C-alpha cells in the first residue's frame, strides 16, 4: 500500500498553544490545530468530532496530542482514520485519570474558581507541577490562556468516559510527570526522564521517539 508524505496535526494541551511544539524536529509537515470555542455542556467526544472537521481526511495524516490534546486525539479516532496517533504526557482511557483529579473535577467547584487563578500561578508551584526549566515561556502561555475554555475543559474532563484504545497508538510519557502520572498497560508507554512538559524540555528525545515510532508504524502500513 503506497502512502504519500503525511501531514502531522498538532493538538496542544490545556491552556497551551503551538509554542510548546516548537522544539520538535519532525520529518513531515506539521499543522497546529487551534482550539475552537466549546458549545455549552459539550463533552470531549462531541468537541473532538467538531475539531475533526478542521482536518482534511482525503490525505494521509498523523495526530500528535499533548496532555488534553492527547485525549482529544484519541477521541478523534472515532471520526477519523489517522495513520498513527501519538499521545504525549497524556492518558488514553478515562480510568487512568488520577483519583485526586477526578474528585476535584467532579466536586462542582470548577465553575467557581476565579479566572485570575488560572493566569497567575506562583513560579514555585509551576516548577513543582510541571518540572519545567522554561518558566518564561510557560508563564506567557498560561497568562494568555482563556479561563472560560480552561473551566469548560476541566468540567468536560471530569465527565469523560472512554475505554477505546486507537489502532497504531504511541504513548510518550515523562517518568516524573506530576500532572498525569503514567499507567502501565499492555502497550507500555515510551518513558523519558522529565515531567509533564517533556515535549519542550526533552524535545530532542521526544522527536527521536516520534521518528522511530513512525518509521516502524508506516513501514507496517505499507506492507
From TrEMBL:
Keywords: Hydrolase. It comes from Croceimicrobium hydrocarbonivorans. It comes from the Bacteria. Residues 45-206 form the AB hydrolase-1 domain. GO terms for molecular function: hydrolase activity. Gene3D superfamilies: alpha/beta hydrolase. This is Alpha/beta hydrolase. The lineage of its organism: Bacteria, Pseudomonadati, Bacteroidota, Flavobacteriia, Flavobacteriales. SUPFAM superfamilies: alpha/beta-Hydrolases.
